[in-house]
Amino acid sequence: MKLRRNLTGWLYVSPLMLVLLPFFVAPLLVVAAASFFETDGFGGLLPNFTLQNYVDVLSSGLTFNLYLATVKFTFFTWFFTLIIGFFVAYFLVFHVRNQLLAIGLFLLCTVPFWTSNIIRMISWIPLLGKEGLINSALLATGLIHEPLEILLYSSVSVVIAYVHQLTIFMIVPIFNSMARIDKRVVEAALDAGASRFDIMRLIIVPMAKSGIALGSIFVISIVMGDFFVVKVMSGGGSASVVGAFYEDIGVLQYPTAAASAVLLTLVLVAVIALILRTVDIRREITR
Amino acid sequence: MLDDSTASSSALACEKDSTEQKALTRRSLLKAGAALAGAVVGSEVIGAPTIWAQEIKDIELRHVGVSYSVVKAIGDQASKDLGFKVTMQNLDTSAAINRFITQPNSVDIADLEGWQAKLAARRGVIQGIEAKRIKEFDNFLPIFTKGEIDGHKIPRQGISPYEALYLEKADSTQLHDGVTDWLTNVPQVYNADSIGYRPDLVGHVVTEWKELIDPKFKGKAAILDVPAIGIMDAALCFESAGLITYGNKGNMTKQEIDFTCNKLIELKKAGHFRATWTTFDQSVQLMAAGEVVIQSMWSPAVAAVRVKQIPCTYAPVNIKNGKEGYRGWCNGMGLMKHLTGKKLDAAYEYMNWYMSGWQGAFVSRYGYYSPVPSTAKKFMTPAEYAFWYEGKPAPEPVTDPYGVPMEKVGTVRDGGSFLDRVTNISCWNTLMDEAAYMNKRWNDFKVA
Q: What is the pLDDT averaged over residues B296-323?
């Protein structure tokens, strides 16, 4: 009986395993192996075990600065997508009385995603530029006398592009977890004299935790693993962890690039583990 | 057309192929014989003899490289003229060299810059090209084949096309200094890069690199963010401003790299750079939207800004007192090692088609040059040739390769004739020995 149960369990996970093992685990192992090799300087890997690549990556001030820049973008993006995502989901679940309308509005949130990521990012450029729409409008109203350069090719524009791209990844899981909150709990709290703010603080946020955690994992891992948005929206004025090792690959320095990639993977695993420690997603979902 | 030895080898090859695929039938023997006969008879048209065409119509060549050099319209024309299929695939510079080295069998013709040819040879992924099978080889500008022109020695800072051209033997892995019978690549398109600026906003003529780092353009300047060549643009600026003299801008020492990147960081912290750019489109965008008034720029990008009716000038940075000069680059076609038999013959046909003029004329119409101007000339109107190559005022309106009007009558091309341009190249695109270190320092500049 017990054996049967085990077998069914394995059967359930086997399709996913069949995909993950060859297409995810195996490449990771190859990268990990390459990070311990030496290079001949023009693309060849010499299979001599060395820790030098890790020493180089970990002992360089550049690595620290790159992580600092990437973490800064990640934090701000996470913060704004969380605030916007949470309130959009809250409105859809608790303020739109008609279920059908709520679903309709929810689908409306996905409309921007019918175009490509890149187009949605690039379309900010004519809006934010020196001679862009926002600056022209502000100049015309006389609020400013010099165009604001901070709007484009700065950290501001990078965060704007990320928030625009990634808020949906917060909305979806938070909407999902809020939709499962029993409305009668909220009513009972109201009857017991709780304020709107208390309800939010003591009922809704704790019960939407799993959605917040899932959304955070999406947003954080996407921003940490991206280089393109930073490159374009910062006007090349900032770099990112991934951008730096992509450039290493460009000059065929595979082992250092591999060591950087392994390091980034470990950092992300640690961050996600931290999120999962605070929120037991499994328990929340099966609640 | 084909000489006898190659004709018979191709016939043998196709006989071998057909025996491998099916039993040696009477038909395949006939075909082989016919191919031999056809090849020996030869024909006068550009392309291939008809029987040969029967043989190769199923061949597909994959030409892989950067978008400004591997152009779909050229591949389409080649397919039409040659009777076999050419597919163009575009990747950025670093993705391309990685593809050639890590997946050599997924490429037939590798589009290589000099430094990439050096690496590809080192890794043994390309085969030597027989110079005598390249029909126009004697008509190539001596810039490429001898490293000189009109007695003027072409500078060798960085990797000049001549330096990266020869191999000692067909399977050598090291470049050879001096003329031999074996080539790493067949040069197909080249140009000289400098600075683009908005004459209406700059207010004076720019002929020196140091203008790019002049404090009066604070917050209005941009530099190219492809580390390997951006650092050379920066070096040209600092040398021009008299801050440093480099031993070899194309192969800096660690100290020189440190000096250059520290100086860049200083400039960045002072708010000098509005942005850096990596793609052609970004550079056009920066200039057209008024974000910058001066930046490293490529000739066709300057033209693309002008097409939008926005004034933009390509600075002629002729060499003066041992400073300034253009940063030159050249892309050529390399043959991947796995090409044999009919496919190899087709690749030679393709390269010979490339050198026969249609492609040369096509790339000239957006401001690049052909290494064989004598054949490109045949496919250009006298007015076009006068404007693009001779530096004369345009006798009639000039259009781009797709027929869009570009320049008015009487316009003179920036930088003068192609000889003026080429003889003023002071360094060539390259990959330095200290590339890894240089990348690291360049990223320091990026995150500063």
A: 91
